[in-house]
């Protein structure tokens, strides 16, 4: 039986890259790129080939292998794995690049900033301090060839081939035998007399001075060049001169050198070094310190290197969110760092965190996500949006905080293109109907109208026909003037989605009523929109063949390309009203937004003008539109309302019943119900918009107005009158018979948004109900007393201890 020896190199879990070695340092080792066979993760592999007759170099390589394997420090090259055979030595470390190669590549790309160089030198000095002060080891090889840089831009100290103990055990320093390395030896070693009294760190600190000179000025030609600092920063020159002084006794300890450079005004006293030092100790920091750090981090990220942000800051941010209590403060720096990632990295690292954040009950995190949605929406796919994002976002429509409701409305501009049929045409429209009808904040109602106009092109044809006209018509009767402007602009932005019949019979009558609006801004926009719709009607009237071309989008399927017009028409509304909303919310967090007077239609001749609605005499707030504050009887407990987990969202219909009990501005729904009670045969368009919560059927919410009631009995047809000449005086006014009917039906025909004072009706209704309930309770009490008296008379008094069987 034959046995074949296994090749240890072939079985090694790492393999060398076919690419040629990159900038191998002078010495016995050759640096190769490599990767782990199982995962493909990149590594660096140092290879030493054993040669006959080079036993001294082989012993040096084996000693370096052992040192690197046993020394563990964040600033020393990290050992991963190794292989030792009779023919070669393989040392696997983290993926690194020699410092000389790294500086050359960065110089071609614009050069390194002083911030990066200060932190890199800080790391090397810290590694020397660890070796000298904690391990009593002399590195004996500090130079450009012994420093490596990882993918995050962190400098690592390597080249441990010639290291020896500072305590003298194990012999003296090994012989190098390489001229390129011996030029960094201090002058006292070349003297050989031993007269110079020096500290154990003196030689390594001299070599550190040589390294600093090479970092700023390039390769060191000779030792005499150290006398000229060259391009070394002025703040570092005094400390550099201490390192390369002729007297080894005065060369500072590495720890004291760091302390001197970190002093105020020192070379290493900057925000970048402070950030790195905090990240290294973030696990032991207090939660308050972490919060402050992440809040200030965003301001500094723009000046930090890209590689540092991607490979050092980002993992710490993800860890702080996953396992810490950082909360919403990590969002701003997280999305800022996310700009440096490609699409694949963003999907792997950022998106899972974002999806998890949307399910959080932290209000601050929710509003930050909504405000910064534009930065990550492009990386979200449609299934994720519909199943994991949208169900959590819609809770914001019912939130008691106006800022969250406003940001939720704005976020729909970005989410709408990715929503499916049900979420967009059913669920979202339900919430928009409630917001436009009942939200007490005028700017939020305005933004709801603006958002509907912007996303109108994404709605299905049936939903557009059922929703848009009714929604914008309702907005034109809003007490808040900017909402009326938004309604007009909504009509104009979606003008291509209406048939010519709708333009003539539904839209133009609404717009014409706004030409006498109290606000000039509303009148101006109304006239512009009227001219636009009239020009379309006139062009079709002149050339009926254009009808198909003009109405091509009316029954077309939803198309993202159709949203461009809406964005340009109403782009101003979100910005302007958003700033107003935020100002009002900040200035009056618990007060309801004031409403301007409702636009009144001019009363026909012969009819008394309706009494104006009384307006509370409260001071007006400053802003582009005159608004007044409504005084509230009670104030909400904001601390209790701010907890999402304490709220029972339930179904949308249940939320409607709760919201209906609140005393808010939206009395339009009550007025419409009162109008229906007085005239059941007529149902206004506005009541259709808000009736979904009462009837529970979405299909009935946007139905068209009922046909007009038949004329009263005895009314003559128009053709029966003598229109050509004056009527005889004995016949009287032919319309006099109708005046009584008009006066009787004026109240029922008046819009639910009108100036009628429904407060009296509500008060009378409540008083009647209270009186009826009181009478019922009294009757019930008398009946119960009578029954008890009958039983007592029939059975007599009960004995103590007996059981009542009936």
UniProtKB/TrEMBL annotation:
GO cellular component, one term: centrosome
Domain Protein kinase intervals: 14-314
Residue span of region Disordered: 14-35, 592-806
Top-level division of the source organism's lineage: Eukaryota
Pro residues: compositionally biased ranges: 18-28, 601-617
Positions with biased composition (Polar residues): 666-690
InterPro entries (UniProt xref): ARM-like (IPR011989), ARM-type_fold (IPR016024), CIK-Related_Protein (IPR051177), Kinase-like_dom_sf (IPR011009), Prot_kinase_dom (IPR000719)
One Pfam family here: Pkinase
Biological processes per GO annotation: vesicle-mediated transport
SUPFAM superfamilies assigned: ARM repeat, Protein kinase-like (PK-like)
Function comment: Regulates COPI-mediated retrograde protein traffic at the interface between the Golgi apparatus and the endoplasmic reticulum. Involved in the maintenance of the Golgi apparatus morphology.
Family: Belongs to the protein kinase superfamily.
Identification of the protein by name: N-terminal kinase-like protein
Native source species: Bos indicus
């Amino acid at each position: 039986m034959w046995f074949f020896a296994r090749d240890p190199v072939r079985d090694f879990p790492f393999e060398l890259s076919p690419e040629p070695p990159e900038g191998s340092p002078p010495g016995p080792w050759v640096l190769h790129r490599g990767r782990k066979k199982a995962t493909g993760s990149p590594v660096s592999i140092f290879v030493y080939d054993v040669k006959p007759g080079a036993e001294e170099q082989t012993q040096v390589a084996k000693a370096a292998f052992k040192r690197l394997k046993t020394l563990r420090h964040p600033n020393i090259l990290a050992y991963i794995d190794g292989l030792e055979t009779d023919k070669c030595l393989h040392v696997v470390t983290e993926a690194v690049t020699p410092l000389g190669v790294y500086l050359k590549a960065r110089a071609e790309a614009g050069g390194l900033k002083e911030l990066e160089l200060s932190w890199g030198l800080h790391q090397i000095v810290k590694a020397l301090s660890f070796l000298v002060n904690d391990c009593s080891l002399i590195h004996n090889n500090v130079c450009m060839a012994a420093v490596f840089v990882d993918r995050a831009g962190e400098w690592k100290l390597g080249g441990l081939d010639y290291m020896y103990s500072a305590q003298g055990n194990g012999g003296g320093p090994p012989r190098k035998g390489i001229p390129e390395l011996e030029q960094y030896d201090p002058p006292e070693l070349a003297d050989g007399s031993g007269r110079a009294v020096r500290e154990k760190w003196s030689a390594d600190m001299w070599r550190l001075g040589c390294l600093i000179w090479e970092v700023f000025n390039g390769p060191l030609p000779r030792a005499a060049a150290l006398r000229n600092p060259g391009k070394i920063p002025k703040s570092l020159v005094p400390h550099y001169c201490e390192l390369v002084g002729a007297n080894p006794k005065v060369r500072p300890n590495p720890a004291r050198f760091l302390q001197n450079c970190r002093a105020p005004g020192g070379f290493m006293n900057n925000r970048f070094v402070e950030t790195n030092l905090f990240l290294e100790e973030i696990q032991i920091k207090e939660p308050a310190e972490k919060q402050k750090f992440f809040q200030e981090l965003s301001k500094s990220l723009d000046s930090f290197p890209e590689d540092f942000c991607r490979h050092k800051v980002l993992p710490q941010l993800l860890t702080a969110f996953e396992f810490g209590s950082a909360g919403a403060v990590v969002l701003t720096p997280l999305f800022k760092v996310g700009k440096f990632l490609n699409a694949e990295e963003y999907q792997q690292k950022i998106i899972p965190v974002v999806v998890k954040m949307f399910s959080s009950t932290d209000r601050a995190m929710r509003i930050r996500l909504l405000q910064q949605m534009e930065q990550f929406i492009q990386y979200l796919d449609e299934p994720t949006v519909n199943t994991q994002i949208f169900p959590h976002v819609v809770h914001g429509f019912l939130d008691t905080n106006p800022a969250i409701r406003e940001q939720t409305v704005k976020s729909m501009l970005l989410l709408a293109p990715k929503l499916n049929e049900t979420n967009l045409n059913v669920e979202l429209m339900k919430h928009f109907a409630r917001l436009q009808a009942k939200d007490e904040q005028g700017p939020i109602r305005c933004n709801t109208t603006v958002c509907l106009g912007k996303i109108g092109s994404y709605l299905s044809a049936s939903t557009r026909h059922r929703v848009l006209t009714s929604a914008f018509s309702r907005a034109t009767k809003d007490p808040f003037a900017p909402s009326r402007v938004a309604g007009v602009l909504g009509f104009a932005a979606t003008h291509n989605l209406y048939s010519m019949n709708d333009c003539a019979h539904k839209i133009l009558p609404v717009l014409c009523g706004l030409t006498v609006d109290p606000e000039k801004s509303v009148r101006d926009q109304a006239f512009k929109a009227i001219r636009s719709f009239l020009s379309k009607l006139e062009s079709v009237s002149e050339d009926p063949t254009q009808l198909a071309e003009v109405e091509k989008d009316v029954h077309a399927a939803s198309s993202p390309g159709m949203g461009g017009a809406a964005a340009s028409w109403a782009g101003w509304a979100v910005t302007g009203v958003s700033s107003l909303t935020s100002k009002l919310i900040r200035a009056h967090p618990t007060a309801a937004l004031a409403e301007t007077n409702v636009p009144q239609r001019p009363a026909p001749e012969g009819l008394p003008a309706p009494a104006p609605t009384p307006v509370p005499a409260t001071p007006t707030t400053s802003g582009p539109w005159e608004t007044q504050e409504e005084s509230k009887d009670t104030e909400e407990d904001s601390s209790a309302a701010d907890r999402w987990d304490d709220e029972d969202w339930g179904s949308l219909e249940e939320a409607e019943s709760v919201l209906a009990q609140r005393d808010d501005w939206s009395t339009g729904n009550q007025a419409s119900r009162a109008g229906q009670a007085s005239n059941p045969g007529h149902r206004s368009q506005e009541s259709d918009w808000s009736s979904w919560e009462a009837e529970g059927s979405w299909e009935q919410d946007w139905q068209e107005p009922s046909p007009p009631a038949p004329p009263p009995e005895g009314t003559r047809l128009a053709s029966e009158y003598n229109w050509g000449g004056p009527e005889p005086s004995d016949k009287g006014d032919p319309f006099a018979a109708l005046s009584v009917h008009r006066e009787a039906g004026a109240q029922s025909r008046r819009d639910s948004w009108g100036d009628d004072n429904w407060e009296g009706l509500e008060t009378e209704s409540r008083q009647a109900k209270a009186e009826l309930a009181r009478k019922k309770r009294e009757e019930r009490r008398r009946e119960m007393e009578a029954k008890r008296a009958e039983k007592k008379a029939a059975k007599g008094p009960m004995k103590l201890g007996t059981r009542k069987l009936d």
